[in-house]
Amino acid sequence: MTSSADNPGVVALPPVLYGVAFLVVLVVRSLWPMPIFPAAYLWPGLTVAVIGIGIAIWGRRTMRAAGTNINPSLPALAIVQSGPFRYSRNPLYLALTLLFLGLTVAVNTWWGIVVLVPLASVMHVGVVLREERYLDQKFGESYRQYRSRVRRYL
Q1: For residue 2, pLDDT beyond 70
Q2: How far apart are CA 77 and CA 67, in angstroms?
């Protein structure tokens, strides 16, 4: 992150990271299925995915209402502490993870779990920690107080 950039300098947009990771899951699954369950689990997986989408919608609406940018390549204009941000500092990333896991169950492959491990590492180091550093520098004590009250993930 350069000092002149008013953004956290994330490695990539999180939806792009998750989308590319899931495409990798689908390609590898087509070559070597590795099913989780003996039968299809389409509806339970889609249910988890829909819960993830619901949390994402709630989080996006909360950020818009607070008057801040959702895109991490744009400046943060406020620390959002309402809605799902009362429970997690990163509800949108948790929502993406639920969507990813739900789709993994829906397509019934262990590859989603295998790919989630490096994906979660890239998200933590390349997105979350960079955002935390940026918010700490930009908002100082008010962000530190929020960080002390609300967990990073769950």
Answers
A1: no
A2: 7
85: in domain: yes
- Per the structure, the complete domain to which residue 76 belongs is given by 14-149
Closest CA to 57 of 101, 98, 117, 16: 98
**Residue 2 located in a structural domain:** no
State which amino acid sits at residue 143: Y
Q: Taking 50 as the threshold, does the pLDDT of residue 131 lie above it?
A: yes
- Tell me how far apart the alpha carbons of residues 129 and 132 are, in angstroms, rounded to a whole number: 5
Q: What is the pLDDT of residue 102?
A: 98
pTM for the full predicted model? 0.95
Residue 114, CA distances (Å) to 24, 77, 104 in order: 11, 36, 10
3 state DSSP class of 111: helix
Write b or e for each residue in 96-119: b if 16 or more Cβ atoms lie within 10 A of its Cβ, otherwise e.
bbbbbbbbbbbbbbbbbeebbeeb
- What is the rounded (10 degree) CA torsion for 141, 142, 143, 148? 80
Between CA 96 and CA 20 the distance in angstroms is: 12
With CA atoms as reference, report the closest residue to 49 among 109, 115, 107. 107
**How many distinct helices (H) and strands (E) make up the chain?**
6, 0
Number of domains the chain contains: 1
